[in-house]
């Protein structure tokens, strides 16, 4: 089979040319990085779980009218997506104090916020994704005022929906990162949700025990990363009840092991 053309390789995903114009294939790797790639590792099976979790969440968001780039899952590690022009802004939504917010302002992790906070970061690895405001976005033309209005609206709708979804399975949605893209209809640009939503870019705490079920297990050397991601998938009903670690069959790895 002819090799597909690789469009982009990021820290956790690869984008390949899709089967039709305007589509891409998003491949989920097991690679994990933290602290702007200063810490690197592999979480075996992560890509398979994130592909499935992100598919589930994007599909549900589509049902409530949040436009996303997701078209359909192709296999264990790949999904077909719409090609977008990525807006170079990471949108972080926070419900509870944690991570960089806790460090920056010296507020204890776990403090419930009286209202949801949206923060913007400029997507630039070389600069370490610096925090920015609407003023920078407007000044440097990274997105129009109208686009920022749509982005904030979609981020809040996504947060409201996800808070309920996770609360229903005993998980507190502490914070998460979103990315958006533009699609063009002739001269008319429209903002849609892009990238992924998975435990890689969310803080998910067990409501009862506050146990971390996300990438902080890797960032903070807590161990049990795969088990945590699997627990999220299991609670969302994406793994058969009572399934063990081997239940997420990674066919690609299996084939590689057999030398095929
Ligand atoms: P913080 O600013 O506290 O480090 O991160 C806030 C939230 O956004 C966390 O849920 C974190 O996982 C997510 N986040 C922020 N930047 C990135 C990033 O570059 N990659 C990923 N995967 N998640 C991020």
From TrEMBL:
It comes from the Bacteria. One of its GO terms (molecular function) is phosphoribosylaminoimidazolesuccinocarboxamide synthase activity. One of its GO terms (biological process) is cobalamin biosynthetic process. InterPro entries: SAICAR_synt/ADE2_N, SAICAR_synt_PurC, SAICAR_synth, SAICAR_synthetase, SAICAR_synthetase_CS. Its EC number is 6.3.2.6. The keyword ATP-binding applies. Pathway: Purine metabolism; IMP biosynthesis via de novo pathway; 5-amino-1-(5-phospho-D-ribosyl)imidazole-4-carboxamide from 5-amino-1-(5-phospho-D-ribosyl)imidazole-4-carboxylate: step 1/2. GO terms for cellular component: cytosol. It catalyses: 5-amino-1-(5-phospho-D-ribosyl)imidazole-4-carboxylate + L-aspartate + ATP = (2S)-2-[5-amino-1-(5-phospho-beta-D-ribosyl)imidazole-4-carboxamido]succinate + ADP + phosphate + 2 H(+). Pfam families: SAICAR_synt. Keywords: ATP-binding, Ligase, Nucleotide-binding, Purine biosynthesis. HAMAP family: SAICAR_synth. NCBIfam families: purC. Belongs to the SAICAR synthetase family. This is Phosphoribosylaminoimidazole-succinocarboxamide synthase. It comes from Hephaestia caeni. The lineage of its organism: Bacteria, Pseudomonadati, Pseudomonadota, Alphaproteobacteria, Sphingomonadales.
């Amino acid at each position: 089979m002819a090799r597909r053309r690789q469009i982009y390789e990021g820290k956790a995903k690869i984008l390949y040319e899709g089967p039709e114009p305007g589509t891409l294939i998003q491949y989920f790797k097991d690679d994990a990085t933290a602290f702007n790639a200063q810490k690197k590792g592999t979480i075996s099976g992560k890509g398979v779980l994130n592909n499935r979790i992100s598919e589930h969440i994007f599909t549900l968001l589509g049902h409530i009218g949040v436009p996303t780039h997701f078209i359909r899952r192709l296999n264990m590690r790949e999904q077909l997506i719409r090609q977008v022009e990525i807006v170079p802004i990471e949108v972080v939504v926070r419900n509870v104090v944690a991570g960089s917010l806790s460090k920056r302002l010296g507020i204890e992790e776990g403090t419930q916020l009286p209202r949801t906070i949206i923060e913007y970061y400029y997507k630039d690895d070389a600069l370490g994704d610096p925090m920015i405001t609407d003023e920078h976005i407007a000044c440097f033309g990274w997105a129009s005022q109208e686009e920022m209005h749509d982005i904030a609206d979609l981020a809040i709708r996504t947060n409201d929906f996800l808070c309920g979804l996770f609360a229903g399975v005993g998980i507190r949605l502490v914070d998460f990162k979103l990315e958006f893209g533009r699609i063009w209809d002739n001269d008319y640009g429209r903002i849609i949700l892009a990238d992924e939503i998975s435990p890689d870019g969310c803080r998910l705490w067990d409501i009862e025990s506050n146990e971390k079920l996300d990438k902080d297990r890797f960032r903070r050397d807590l161990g049990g990363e795969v088990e945590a991601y699997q627990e999220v998938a299991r609670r969302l009903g994406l793994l058969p009840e009572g399934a063990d670690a081997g239940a997420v069959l990674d066919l690609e790895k299996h084939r590689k092991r057999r030398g095929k």
